[in-house]
Structure formats: structure tokens, C-alpha cells
Amino acid sequence: MQDDTYSDPALEPMNDSAPLPDNDKIMSDVEQDPQPISVRDHTEIANKVLPDLDLEVETFDVFHWEILDWRGLEKRTHSPEFEIGGYKWKILMFPHGNNQTEYTSIYLEFSDQAAQPQGWHVCAQFALLISNPNDPTEYAFHNAQHRFTAEEADWGFTRFHEVRKLTSIDDHRAHPLVQDNRTLITAIVRVMKDPTGVLWHSFVNYDSKKTTGFVGLKNQGATCYMNSLFQSLYCTNYFRKVVYQIPTENDEPTKSVALALQRVFYNLQYSDAPVGTTELTKSFGWDSLEAFNQHDVQEFNRVLQDNLESKMKNTPADGAINKLFLGKMKSYIKCINVDYESSRVEDYYDIQLNVKGCNNLEESFKEYITEETLEGDNKYMAEGFGLQDAKKGVIFESFPPVLHLQLKRFEFDMMRETTVKVGVWNYRINDRHEFPLEIDLEPYLSAAADKSKPHKYILQGVLVHSGDLSGGHYFAFVKPTKDASWLKFDDDRVTPATLKEVLEENYGGEPQGLNALNSRPNIRTIKRFTNAYMLVYLRECMMDEILNDVTTADIPPHLKRRLDEERLVMEQKRKERSEMHLYMKTYIITDETFAKYQGFDLASFDEKAGETPAYLSYRTKKDDTLESFKNALCENLGVPADHIRLWILVNRQNRTVRPDAPILDADYQLTMEQLREKSQPSQANLRLYLEVATRFENDQPVFPGPPSPRSTSILIFIKMFDVETQSIYGLGHLYVEKNGKVGDIIPTINSMAGFEKETPLLLFEEIKPTMIDRMDTRQTFIRAEIQDGDVICVQKSISDEKAQAIRSQHQFPTVPDFLDYLLKRVTVQFKPRYGTGTGGQFDLTLSRSMLYDVVAAKVGEKLNAAPQNIRFTAPGVSGTPKTVIRHLQSSTLLEMIQSAVYNGANLPTLFYEVLDISLSELETKKQVKVTVLTPTLSDEAMYDLVLPKDKKIAELLQALETKGVKFESETGTRLPRIYEAVQNKFIRELDMGDPISSLTDSAYCTLYAEEIPEEETTAGEDDFYILVFHYQKETNRTHSVPFKFLVKKDEPFVETKKRLQKRTGMDDKDWARVKFTIASSYSATPIDDDEFKLSDHQFSKDEHLGLDHVDKTGKASRVVTHACNLSSFPFHQLPKMMLYKLVVLGDGGVGKPISCLDPYFHSNASGGDNSSEYDTNEVKPERPIDSFTKLTAVEKLRVLFESHRHEQYYYVYYPNDRPTNRLYEQPRSVATDIK
Which candidate, 230, 383, 380, places its Cα nearest to that of 297? Predict the structure, then answer.
């Protein structure tokens, strides 16, 4: 029985501080009307108590239930059955409450289930009222809407009205609702039409494939933006066919974007369940954390298309991306009074259209091509004609078959908080902006464009963002075929959609009423915007080709074969999982498995160890008898059944696992599960030792009697430690006499090991991993407390001199030494710090107690390098080299790997580098990493140098020359420039006389060496220098190499661009996509005029020339984004790890990071979680810590910033991707620059 939470506005008015009711359960109550309405006035009362959902009503009716004996009603009572909309209904009432006694409970019940087909549903909006029997204008009501199904056949209100108030009056009512033991219950029901079949669906057990023929994509955390794009591309059938044509037979899914996308498309086509995209994101080089970062859809699409284009080269698919998505536009300046025009034609893959100031898509296109008049002080300098009045504009030369339109829903603004400048704020534009189902784009084409075929475009996709600036959710509406209905692709769910959902609900603007189709409405509107940000239009005359069906013939055979094989494996695993409760695992140790095992006990049963198990594993049915299992085992091993005996392995109190006793003959009739419960009830699996007879009488195997106080023999196991090979292995088992001396078994062991009979041996008892005791060979076994199942380790006796020599080789001379190594061993992954390194990546198994020098010796042995020249670096959170591990002779490997961050990897990782000098010598020298740029800025080569700290920059250049560095530009000065950059921005140029010690020692700083261009040697008096940097869409997303650039007096920008392209080394294709801006920290002004002169602009200290283009590495650093949503709550309430780190960059941005903000935001903390990463001092606030923790975020930031005005602060936080009732849902890191 379903219900809604009680609320009575007449008695308890709802306000903003009141808790919200469940979103799915909406109700209201009576309000005082100037002209009371009677519950008998059906139309008027329905309009009052039922809100307009803007849905088509199939049937409407009202039913009254007159109750003449209220006190005589049963605890659970039904009204007479009534019919509305061809369905039978009842009112279900609990006069004194359902599961409580304070409130009357009333529900509407669908009572016609028997007559309905399987899978039936009825959507109804209804209100339930209770009114005075004599005055029907005195009433209370609640309303709701519900999808009635077999699982939810009733719906209503558990807390409908307080029982004690039904018979009383108050300031709001002149008469009680129950008077003279009588009352009237009314049901007002609107049966609604369900245009999609999923109206008010709970989506429990919903089948997307069955309902729509399509399946969704799983969300990895914040990949909804990616899912919406992929579903749109998937439904662009021509694109899907092109992707299938890319050769990928020899590729790996996690390393090939093309293959991973093929697999996703294939699974979307043939799978019945939502499809995962983990392989695809891994193919981008993303780790699991990166999947929690939302990326810009436009730039993500371009990176994807570029990757696919490169893979398509010289294949049947070559050029297909351009054919499908590429259009051309012309930028021009045309003189009004003279015959002169300057123009250039550029490629585009999408069009960014303004929303602000435009009511619809047509107005956005008109605004896009609107001409600007250049006149007055803004006249155009026409070559040969001087200053002229001119028209400047853009016109389209062609539109692609598939047109992607980006609606600009975000803008930049300045936000100020008293005297503190918080920074640039990205704000959301929610203006209403309509887009049509079809649009004629011919009016926006140039006169010279090819118009032989119509340019009518049909809407095929709408990509939507719902949320606000702090986060949100992405989904898509797509019309898969020309005649299909619209579908909504929302991550793993695909549902039918109405035209209203596609258009009206995504135009933007303030919400109009309730969103009845998508959810059950709430009584209060949350400020949350939902609107289209990307539109997909198809050219109507090419739709048949673009949407032509994708058949099996279009799919590469290798792809289908590989996925079919994987599917069969998955189905087998699924079957095994479903039958898992019928089976158990049985582990068998034999003398053969013991001989191959290196470790403690007879075997390790830790399946997570990642090593080949030293035992036999069988999947056995729980109801099989031990007898049948034994027979099958013997058949498998080729041993007669009467030649073996099985022992139970038990856990001893010292946490070892040893044989305890042989299984009795009577127990062989037990089932495997019964035997496990009897002998090993705490274990999920059965563990046994298989003993093979070694003694025979009259050809019959003979086994010693089972352990007992009367038995004279003991079963022991022997391990042999080989000092030469540094290995230990099992020799086998022995039966020894209890009263025999330990030394008596030495000849037998020598014989088992193949040694001379008189070879001296040392014997040790392996009591437990941390206790390996030397045995006295003169003692008896019973005196030495040896019992069945004990393990004795032996080795050849060696001299003290040989033992010392073995230790000098960092090896282990005795059993206790070697077993201590096994106990403390850890496999460490070593990676070269720079590039592939001389030895590449490798793993070494070492002891955690090894000292730094021993670890270096082991690595040096692997690399054939001098150990004293090897330096180690621990990785940071991102998995990249972070902190150099200080060389201390007392440091152990455990301490070294504890300073590393595992970052979710299975193995601890250390980075290594082989220096040209020893670590001791390095103390007087400085390691310098230089990136040499020649012949262009795109040609990078990295060099590692070690230079005396007191030397000059000139010596650095000499060191580069010795490594063969030559500057190779076509026309250059051959004179070097050494400069530093932080976050891809030029910071300072160094003089040749500057000391090496002055170089910035920071992971954020890059040192560059380039050849000074020849043009700088001929600079005029009026020429000057500016700084240039690359960024991607936002000036805070910097990438590539920044540089210093000469501005020539009165040089038109068209000529400036040629010099810039030559300097950067970018090819024509990439250069055509570059946009130019004059950029500062807070703004970016486009440069669209080829005749513009940089020399005319008065550059401020903060302004640079910006090159805006896609970073093909996909790793553009985000230096500045803004955390203004953190401004209203106390920081001490944040989860501790949400506060990451504060970085101080003084002296023009060059400096060292300091510890995180945790000491200020958590009064209990003495330091930040990541403060150990930094070797610098903590910043202290000017206020006492106890009062500081009570401040809001903005107040705290102000205290810190006012104390350090000269420095730049970078603060990292994790915003939520989807608004919830919690502060944060999914983490993603964003750096914030607040000055």
C-alpha cells in the first residue's frame, strides 16, 4: 500500500523552512475561498483541487460516499465500487489510521485488476475529500497523480487528517468534518491519456529494449555528457557505418578509440542491457578518476573526431568525417565606396549561436551573419585605398549534411564581494530560445554557394543540460529514423518522448507549470534550469543516405566474432554465478604441489595474492559424496583409489594451516557440504591434503594409524632451502618416531634431496611466519614438541665466512633470513621518471626492510647502472612523479613506498632515474630539465642536465651543446633564449649571467630553450614584445608552449598570423582552427579583422595574445575556475578530503606550493591530508583558529587572501555533478584562482 506524507496547510502552513514532501507524492489542503465551492459542484471543485497538468484527460468523474455511522466503521473499510473511465474503483479508508493512530488514512484503490491484461496500467490524477454532511463547502482534501499497476494498485494518504480534529471546529471551519456521526467522502478522478506509455512510470524493472528497441549507456560517475553525444552519433547511421570501416582487427579496446567505439556501437545495436563505456574512456587515456570529470561536449567531440580522422587515413573511411560534418564559412570586409574586399574561407564542424538577445534559432542565424559597419574612427584601412567605410561580416559558403549547432548558454561576468575580487564567474543563460522541427538555411548562404539542392534541415537530435553552474545532468532526445517517434536517452534508460518534451520543455525560460510528463510534481519549484545546448539537424535531401539502416554486412567480421566469443564467456560466467549456491570449491594439496610451492605452510590459500595457486582446485557439487569425489579425483590424477588417503587441513591457533587427521572411512559417505560443516565450519571451501601410500605389504598399500595418544609415529613435512638459488621448496613428507631423535632423519633427508649421505644439515622448525626456530638434533621429536602436520625447513650447513659473503651480495644465507624476506616481500613497480628510460618499466620483488642503498643496488643490477647514481621519486595523486625521495642510509623500502600514492593501482610504484653523477655529488649540484624547441615551438626535445649550483646559465647552454643540441630554424640567429613558464604561460626570461641556483625548483614550472628569431635582431624603435599563450575555449585552460613575440609597427594581422604560424610550427589544417584573442585573466576579446594591427593596441601588464584551439592531448590544464557555490556554508562541515590543497605562487607566479587548507577549515587538524607532499612552511591566518573555523567560506578566504595580497592562490574543490539533498555526490577536482 502506497501513501503520501501528510500536510494540512490550513493548520500547518507550508513555507520555505518546512521539509519538502516526497517528490512523487503531492498533496494540498483546503484554503479559505471568498466564495466557497461545494464538493457537489463537480466541475468547479475539480478545477480547484486538481492542478492543470497540461495533459489530455481521457475521462473525468466524481464519486460520493455518504457515511451515516462514522463510529461504527471497521478498522479497514471500503466504499461501494464505482466506475470511472471504464475502470472499477473503490475508496479504501482506515478511520483510525493505518500503521498509526493519529491520522485517518484514505486511499484510492483500483479494483478491476482481474479484467485487465498482463502488464496493464492506468494513469489517473485524483483528489480525495472529506466534507461536512450538511455543508459541502466545509471540506479538506489531498491530491495526487499515480500510475496504477498490479504492483501499485492503491495510492493515497496515510496522514490524511488528524482524527481528533475531524469532530471539532476551529478558526478555519464553522462546522466539523464529521458531524452527528456522519460525513461525506468524495473521490474526484481524471483518467489521463498516456501518450508515451511511460507516464509517471516508476521504472522499476523497466526494459528499454523491449519498449523502444534501444538500450542506454551506463554512467561511470560523470559521463552523462559523453553518453548523450554517443547516442546522437549512434543514431547517425552513416557515421556508425564509417566507424565500422576503420581497420581495428589488431587493436586493443583500451588502447584504440576506434575499436572501443566500434564495440560500443555494436553492443548498442545488439545488446538487451545497458552498455558500458569503460573501455572507451580508457582508450582516451583516462583513469577511473577522470571519468568523474565532466568535459565540454563540443571540445570532446572535436578530440574524438580528430582521433577517428587520423585512424581513417588511407582507409576506405578516409574523408568521411569531413563529408558528414564539415561546412565552410567566409569572413569578409567589403568597402562601401570602392571596389575592394578582403575575405577568407574557413572550415567549421559546428556553429556556435548566441541565445542571449535572440528569441529563436532563425534570429540567432540572422544575428550571426549580421554585417557590422566600419565607419568614423573605426574605418577600414583598405590596401591601395586608405581608410574606407566598409561592411564586416560572415556568410556561409556551405552547410554539412549533419549540422551541429552549439547554443551559447554560458557567459562571463565579474562578481565582487565587498573589497575582495572573487574572479570571473561563468553564468548560465536560461533565456527562452525556440528551435523549429525544420529550418531552411538557404537565406544564410552566400550568393556564390551551390544551391542546386534545397537546404532544408530537419531536427534529429536535442542534447540537453539540466542543472546549474555547480553541476547538473546531461541527456538527449533523438529521432532515430525519418518516421520514428522521439526517444529520450538518459544514461542507461531509453524512453519514448512527446514533442512537448523535445521542444517546449527545452526552450529555456522560467518553468511553465508542472512538468507532468517527466516526474511527479513538487509543490515548490527548485531553481534548476533545463534547456537545449546542442542541436543536430540533418539535411532533408540527404536523410535517406544518412539514416540508411546499418546491417550485419556493415559490421566487420572480426568485431562480431570477438564480441560473440566474449558474450559466450560472459553467459557461461553468468550461468556459473547463478548456480554458485549449488557448488563449492575443494582445494587439494599433494606432494607434487608442495614441491612447487615457495612460501609458508604447505600452500597459500589467499586467492588475492596474484600468484599461481600451489594447490589443485576443483569445483564440486555440494551434494556429491566424498566417495564419489575421491573416485573422480583418483581418475583425474591416475592413481588407484586405495592408494590415497585424504587429510583435513585445519586452522591452528597460531594462524597456520596444517593437516590434522585423516578422514575416517565412515565419513566418505557424507556429502561434501556435510564434511565441510563437520570439519571446517568456518571455511567456505574444503581444504584437504592428499597422501599417497609409500609402503606396501603383499602389494597392498599400508598407511600408519591415525594420530592418537597411542600412536608412535608423526607425519611431518620437509622443506629445502637452497642457498645458491635463493629458493625454498617442498621435499615431501615423512613419518618419524615420536621418541626418535631429530638428527636421525638427516640421512633420509639427504637421500630425498639427492645429497651425499653425510652432508651436514641445519634444521629449523617453521612454527609460524614470525617464528622460525633452530632445532636441536639431539632432542627427540616429542621433546621438541613436534606433532602431526608440522613443517621442518632444512639447508646445507655453511661457514660464517660464506654467510657473510652471501649477505654482502644482498642475499640470504639462512632459512630464518630467507623466510623473513618472504614475509616482508613486496612487488614494486619501477617506472622511468622521464620517457621510456634506459630500462623501461619493470617489477622487482623486494623486502620491505631493505635499505635505500640495497634497493638501489637491486635496481642498478636490473639496469646495469651504478647504484649510487640512481635516484627515486614517489608518485603523487595523479600517478605522475611528485616527490624526490631523500637519500638516507637508514631509509627502508617500506618508508619509501609509504611516501608513494598507490592511486588505486595493485602495486606500489616508484619512479627511477639514472643520474650522470652520484647522489652524494648531487648535493652540490642542481638537476635541470630543459625542453629545447627547434626548429619550431612544436618540435620539443627534453634534456636532463646536472650542473653545479654556482655556475651560470651560459654553462647550461654549453652542457646542451655537449649533448648535440643545435638550433635548426631556416632563418635564425642561432642565439638561444632561456625562459621559464608556469601553467603554460611565459613568466620570465633568464640572462646568461644568472646563476643556476636561481632557476625555479617547482613541478609547476617548465624551463625552455629556443632560438631567438632573426626578426628580433632587426626590430625597429616602435616595435615591442608581447607574450603569447595557447588555451582551449577558456583562458584558464592553457596548453602547449608559450612564447615571447615581436609586434611590428603597423603590421596587418594577416601578416602577423603568418609569422605566428611559422613560429609555432602548426600545419595549415590545425592553424585554420585557431581563433585569436587579446586575453587577460578575466576576458578574451576576439580578433576577427585581418587588417587589425597589434601595434595599435595598448597592452596592459595582464594582457597576452591568446591562441584558442583544441589541445589534442586532451590534457589542457585548468588553472582557473570558480568555487562561488561554496560561499554560504561553514567549511568545517565539509568532508575533510573535499578540501584538497592550497598553492601559493609568489613573485609573479613563480614559487612553491604549500600545505593544504585543512588546518584552517578543521579545528582538530594539525595539518592537511596532503601537506606531506610539500617541503615548505605553513601559512598561518591572522585570526585565532577557534574563531576562524566558525566563519563562512568567503570570510575565511578573505582572511587568508588579505594576509597574502602579493600572492596567487589556487584552491581545489570537488563540486557535485548532480544536485542532491547532500552537499556533494560525486568528486571531481577543479582548481580555483581567487585573487
Answer: 230
> CA–CA distance from 1122 to each of 1119, 1126, 1168, 1214, 1218 (Å)?
10, 9, 22, 11, 17
Which segments of 95-133 are extended strands (E)? 103-110, 122-131
Burial class (CB in 10 A: 0-12, 13-18, 19+), 627: middle
794: closest CA among 823, 759, 770, 820? Answer: 759
Residues 714 and 705: their CA atoms lie apart, in Å, by 10
d(CA 433, CA 435): 7
Burial class (CB in 10 A: 0-12, 13-18, 19+), 1130: middle
Taking a C-beta distance cutoff of 8 angstroms, is the pair 1177, 1167 a contact? no
Contact 947, 926 (CB under 8 A): yes
Question: Rounded CA gap, 784 and 766, in Å?
Answer: 12
Catalytic residues: 224, 473
Spatial separation of the C-alpha atoms in residues 1110 and 1032, rounded to whole Å: 5
Q: How many CB atoms lie within 10 A of CB 127?
A: 24
Backbone angles phi, psi at 670, to 5 degrees: -75, 155
Residue located via cell numbers 531552411: 440
Largest CA distance in the chain: 124
How far is the C-alpha of 585 from the C-alpha of 608, rounded, in Å?
Answer: 16
CA within 13 Å, CB half, 779: 12
* pLDDT, tens only, 812-848: 999 999 999 999 988 999 999 876 556 788 999 999 9
Among 105, 104, 131, CA closest to 39: 131
Helix (H, G, I), strand (E, B) or coil at 786: coil
CA-nearest of 1025, 1040, 1041, 1042 to 1094 is 1025
Q: How much of the chain exceeds pLDDT 70, in percent?
A: 81
Which of 104, 102, 101, 40 has its CA nearest to residue 70? 104
Q: β-strands 713-722, 727-737: how paired?
A: antiparallel
Q: What would the mean pLDDT of 1146-1174 be, rounded to a whole number? A: 33
The string of DSSP letters for 1107-1135 reads EE---TTS--EE--B--GGGSSSBGGGS-
Containing 827, the helix (H) or strand (E) segment is strand 825-832
Q: Are 781 and 714 in contact (CB under 8 A)?
A: yes
- Report whether 745 contacts 793 (CB < 8 A): no
Average pLDDT in the 113-126 region?
A: 93
478 neighbors 487 (Cβ within 8 angstroms):
yes
**Which residue type occupies 1146?**
G
271 forms bridges with which residues in the sheet? none
Cα distance between residue 69 and residue 804, in whole Å: 103
* Long-range Cβ pairs for the range 360-364 (8 Å, 24+): 360/433, 360/434, 360/435, 360/436, 361/405, 361/433, 361/434, 361/435, 361/436, 361/439, 361/535, 362/436, 362/439, 364/407, 364/433
Question: What type of residue sits at position 1193?
Answer: A
Long-range pairs of 1175-1179 with CB within 8 A, sequence gap ≥ 24: 1175/883, 1176/1152, 1178/1154, 1179/1142, 1179/1144, 1179/1154, 1179/1155, 1179/1203, 1179/1204
| Residue (of 580, 809, 819) closest to 719 by Cα position | 819
* pLDDT, tens digit, 9 for 90 and up, residues 44-90: 999 999 999 989 999 999 999 999 999 999 999 999 999 999 999 99
Q: Could you tell me which residues come within 8 angstroms of residue 893 by beta carbon, excluding any fewer than 6 positions away? A: 826, 828, 846, 847, 848, 849, 850, 851, 852, 855
